[in-house]
Design goal:
The complex is a heterotrimer of chains A (311), B (102) and C (390).
Chain A: H1 4-7, H2 26-35, E1 41-45, H3 49-54, E2 66-68, H4 74-90, E3 99-105, H5 106-111, H6 114-123, E4 128-133, H7 173-178, E5 184-189, H8 193-205, E6 210-215, H9 219-223, H10 229-238, E7 244-248, E8 251-255, H11 264-267, H12 282-302
Parallel strand pairs in A: 1-2, 1-3, 3-4, 4-6, 5-6
Antiparallel strand pairs in A: 5-7, 7-8
Helix pairs in contact in A: 2-8, 4-6
Chain B: E1 16-18, E2 33-37, H1 47-51, E3 57-60, E4 63-67, H2 77-81, E5 90-94
Antiparallel strand pairs in B: 2-5, 3-4
Chain C: E1 3-7, H1 9-20, E2 24-27, H2 34-45, E3 52-55, H3 59-70, E4 76-81, H4 82-88, H5 92-97, E5 103-108, H6 122-125, E6 133-136, H7 140-155, E7 163-168, E8 177-181, H8 184-191, E9 208-210, H9 219-248, E10 255-258, E11 265-269, H10 273-286, E12 291-296, E13 298-300, H11 304-311, E14 316-321, H12 332-341, E15 349-355, H13 364-374, E16 383-386
Parallel strand pairs in C: 2-3, 2-4, 4-5, 5-7, 6-7, 11-12, 11-14, 14-15, 15-16
Antiparallel strand pairs in C: 1-8, 6-13, 10-12
Helix pairs in contact in C: 1-2, 1-7, 3-4, 7-9, 10-13, 11-12
The chains are: A alpha/beta (311), B mainly beta (102), C alpha/beta (390).
Amino acid sequence: MASLKELATRKDPLTGGHRMCPGCGAPIVVRQILLASKDPVVVVSATGCLEVSTTIFPYSAWNVPFLHNAFENAGATMSGVEAAYQNFKKKGKIDQHINFVAFGGDGGTYDIGLQSLSGAMERGHDLTYVCYNNEAYMNTGVQRSGATPRGANTTTEPAGKVSQGKVQWRKDLTEIMVAHNIPYVAQGIIGNWSDLTRKAEKAFSIRGPKFMNILQPCRLGWGYRPDATLELARLAFETCAWPVYEVENGVYKISKPKEKKPVIEYLKPQDRFRHLFKPGNEALLADIQAEVDRRWGQLLAKEAPRQGSGQ
Amino acid sequence: MSEVKPGWKTLPEGDIVKGGTAAEFKTGDWRSERPVWFPERCIHCMFCWISCPDSSIVVKDGKMTGIDYDHCKGCGICVKECPVKPNKALEMKPEREGSCQR
Amino acid sequence: MSKVVARTGNEAMAEAMRQINPDVVAAYPITPATEIVMIFAKYVADGLVDTNFVAVESEHSAMSACVGASATGARVMTGTSSQGLCLMYEILPIAAALRLPIVMCDVNRAISGPINIHCDHSDTMAARDFGWLQIFSEDSQEAYDSLIQAIRIAEDPRVHLPTMVTTDGFIISHCLDRIEIVEDKEVKEFIGGDRKAANSLLDVKKPVSVGLLDLQDYYFEHRLPVAEAMKNSKKVILEVAEEFAKKFGRKYGLYEGYKLDDAEIAIVALGSTCGTAKVVIDELRAKGIKAGMLKIRVFRPFPAEEIAQALANVKAVAVLDRSDMWAGQGGQVFTEIRSALFEAVKKPQLLNYIYGLGGREIDQPMLRSVFTALQSAEKQPLVQYLGVRE
């Protein structure tokens, strides 16, 4: 695995001067993942915060080739790029290895872009799809998505007098990707650069479709001080609200927190969950804790027992 | 960027630009607080560099050399992530009026 | 040396695609265009082409993949119809704005609802404002010839716009026709080697960003060149057609006049209906009636001046639209032609017939009735529906 000093010798894939919010996690996802590639990369991005804020004409923050097509089609668009690359390679017009990386937010990945993503994964293109997951449609102003967790306040499922934010549990896209039987699926956070860059390095070392679902706190939509972005991501991991794990050729490898913290430690610092701490919502909080525990248990059961105790 | 914007006859064909032009766009004036670096305390762990959303930690030959105040938005993540104890190598200070590098 | 063979429209288009040998094809099955893709997929499977074929999971993804592939500088083709084209609508103007010369085989079919698999032009007409060149075909031969020409036109530096070549669903796509096929090597020569793109997304040494966000200050300046390139393409279409005629003997223009020069009454039509109309016109001519036709080959760019000039001396003209704008001012073709003639000093009396929706038969008696009506055009309503039960 490349050390930080080594990574720091590589060309930064993003320049400053983009218009993401101060403390935004999305460019951190991009930098940590793309810096892990020792080979050149080509990027496709779905419409979303990342795309809009990094490419306001005539200013592009991308130091690597970048293509934006539309919202729901990053998977398909990258399929076309990769197919053309394979064609040129076959014809001897190009020999350089390139890592193809598609970025989409959770809206563009869990919801509107799910079909395009699924198709790209099923067809086996040699690409890495990265979901920078901030658990709502942040670009349009914090609307609920299939990735929004239960109880979160969003502008299309707001907390009100008779409602406590999102009613449904979020769907488990990472497991949907695992079910595609692709060679590598990872779920991670931006609060642990060494884990994330290692996962990205692994993804880039594997030929075929790879999927990474990276939790990326959004200071605007989640409501917290901008300097807490990485800290909150780590709390999601430490409470198992967002398990960190990878599945390589069907084999699960789970990162376990030293001590599993109560989920309220993760929820409490966020404005989007503030209403849950009003008197009368204790049952809902208990419900969220129970679901986190259930899903964590279910995930642990997927990991094959290992020889010895070493993790 | 000059204020006179090109017309359609002179713009390059298609919706395309050379990569990295956003570096010409300054976001330093977004700050209300700025991180200040204390080189004597710095252990050059690069945690700030890998955590910066604005690519604003300047590094050279594997060492931190400063902060790009033209683009730093003052989010404070670098300060939060700095592991140096007891005094961090980066501290947030109020942005003085007119001090933003333009 | 060309050879004469029997081919359906779909087979003819697939044959042209094989000879063009694009770098990437991304497509999804839809009646009645499926066959083009099926036949082409077999060419890929048999190693007869060098293409990377992406069998996507929807037409939306087909056009999205085409955009991605084309942004690398690859020569890219696809094929679709009706609902499939509708699903592509979102991406079609993006391909145009990015100036990607994707070439599409578009088999005209009615759009839902109700669901219907047969021919009309509503799918293609609804795509007329997306910055794609649109070339219609009367028969398989024209489809074959135009598809080969489309590569040259789309990739010409004065154009750099995506192009669709259309056939009429089932009527052309599935009917065997006698066509002349050019030799592979001649097609290759005519196209002239690989696509020459100014930028490639795969150029990692000179990274470019493509598809940026334009705010109020640049959007207009990025859209207008599409119109300009569209206008320029007229000249290119004619140049390419002339070269094609020199090499292969078949001549094409923006439109075709059939016995139009001295016509007193005429129809304007596109696609397969023109074949039937020619028979009716011959018959009327034999009776001494000065009937004629203006067949539109290129609907985008719309050859307004050329058509206005060609129709100047006709007394009455019926525009046949195989699609409707539902309480607009007649069909799409009619609206264009009426507008083209507005300033003309000499212009015919105009009528509009909307016909053939959802594959409704258009036969000789119906066309004869149109010519009969044209003989007393001043007594006719402006817009009429032809062949619908009341």
